[in-house]
Amino acid sequence: MKNKFSFCSYFLFIVVSFVFCQTNISTANTSAPDTTCTSFRLFEDETPLEITLSFDLSTYLKTKSKKEYMKGRITLPLENADTMTKNINIRARGIFRNEWCYYGPMELNFKKADFGYSDLNSIKKIKLVPQCTAGNESERNILIEFLIYKMFNAMTDTSFRVRLLKINYVDSENKKKPFTQFGFFLEPVKMLTERTNSIEIESRALNQKSIFPRVMDRIAIFNYMIGNYDWAVPNQHNIKVLKPLAFDPSNLAAAVPYDFDFTGLVNASYAIPEDKITGTTNIRERIFLGVCRTKEEYMKDLSEFVEKKDDFYRIINEFPYLNTKQKKDLVLYLDEFFDQFTGKQIIVYTFLFKCIFF
What gap in Å lies between CA 93 and CA 96, rounded to an integer? Predict the structure, then answer.
């Protein structure tokens, strides 16, 4: 009798919960939806997200403080042309771009904002990558950096997702006129680790030998393809290291690259390599920084890039926010990479000659 009562109680609980959830969804247009039932689809939706950031823009641009948060408000679009505005906190972040760029990278703190959406409410802090400066060149650069993330997404789910933004900046003190620029949100590490069933690890003892070989080779070759030398596993420079929660006797980890503005594919005017470190002052000259493998291993690694070639070109050519000339430049730069695959497979011997021994 007790078991029968428990079953009935459990069944009644499920029915009530379902009805409650449906009720909240049906009234989502008039009040914030229940966080257990609704996702904003921040990183699942492919359409650009238009947001408004209102804060003391003048003071922020003068200080670009990475220590002190500044009060602000964010406005997000909802269905039926409705919007939602919440109080948040904003501060600057980054190193090079914080000093060089007029609009440095930002961190938005969502801790005290109740958005009413499960994914947004799970975010405590989120990185926003804005344009470096005003103007067409900076707009082009941020859009290409966004595409690089999408290209790496095409290779593996163990990668940072991004969401393209059209950002309306409003100075809450009315000292600057409102303006609109592109930017993108970068998936928080916590979201990435939950999605990949892993945890982030940080250690100065880590190097490329600490990473699953195929994962490490993919990153090294991808960075070579886009002309990126600004990364390293030791000290986790523009690399996050994730340890799978599932048992693995090898005790190896995965790695995820990010921050792609200093690449030949973006070709930003400020991206000038130090020749004493890289041996070149031309950001478009590719440098291979991967660990040494056999010829056969490199051939196997490169086959994945051949399979993804059409995806890379499709991501570029179907992107509506770059013009034909800009897309052609990107395709030609990638062509230089794939042309090394023909004939005597020059690229393999480049890797064998330039690789790093441990």
Answer: 10
* 147 and 157 Cβ atoms separated by less than 8 Å: no
Q: Which of 102, 104, 109, 63 shows the shortest CA–CA distance to 86?
A: 109
> pLDDT tens digit string along 95-120?
999 999 999 999 999 999 999 999 99
CA 328 – CA 324 distance, rounded (Å): 6
How many C-beta atoms surround the C-beta of residue 342 within 10 A?
Answer: 9
**What secondary structure letter does DSSP report for 270?**
T
* Tokens found for residue 274: 């130090």
User: What is the edge-to-edge ordering of all strands in the sheet holding 254-257?
Assistant: 198-201, 239-244, 254-257
Residues 226-242: tens digit of each pLDDT? 999 999 999 999 999 99
Render 285-309 in DSSP notation, one character per residue: S----PBP--HHHHHHHHHHHHHHH
Contact 112, 37 (CB under 8 A): no
> In terms of Cα–Cα distance, which of 314, 297, 303 is closest to 338?
303
Instruction: Specify the DSSP element, H or E, that contains 140.
Output: helix 136-153
pTM (2 decimals)?
A: 0.89
